[in-house]
Structures are given as structure tokens and as C-alpha cells.
Amino acid sequence: MQEKNDMSDNLSSKQKAYMLIRIQPGTESEFYGELKKLPNIIGIDLVHGPYDFVVVAEGSASDIDHVVLRIRKIPHIISTETMTAFTLS
Is 63 a domain residue? Predict the structure, then answer.
């Protein structure tokens, strides 16, 4: 008898995280420059709305944790919200 295939069996070890970031007004250029220095970031968008930036990071769970913690240490951040996506293989 064949076991039912669970979605978790198809999860890739590579993860992606979307980070929504609010920063102090007038610090966009400085903040962007700091983000560009970090590894594992594959996208940086300046946006309008309740957040100022959407950052996309990709890598192992450890890579994602590391980049999120480094971003949170950058000056001028008001708040962050991180959503981790699990890529199906």
C-alpha cells in the first residue's frame, strides 16, 4: 500500500523570506545602501503604503535568520514584519 504524499515531502531546503520594513522618513537612501551590502538579499523595493521597503531574501533557514537579524540592526528602522515562504520542489 502506498503512503499518502505529504506536501512537506516536497519542500525545498532553500527558503525565501519577504520582509516589510518601516523606516524613519528621510533615511531611504542611507537604508537602501546598507541593505545592498547584505548577502542573500535578492530584491529590494521602495514602496508606498504602510511600509517603506519590501526586501526579499533567499537561502537556507540559517541564512534567512542571519539576514533578518542583520537588517533589524540597521539604524532608522521603526518596525519590521517577516514572512517566510517555503518553496515546493
Answer: yes
Q: 67 pLDDT band (50/70/90 cuts)?
A: very high
Long-range contacts of the stretch 65-71 (C-beta < 8 A, 24+): 66/40, 67/17, 67/38, 67/39, 67/40, 67/41, 68/17, 68/19, 70/38, 71/19, 71/21, 71/35, 71/38
Are the beta carbons of 82 and 16 closer than 8 angstroms? Answer: no
Quote the pTM value. Answer: 0.82
**Number of domains the chain is built from:** 1
Q: Is 1 a member of any domain?
A: no
- 40: domain range? 22-88
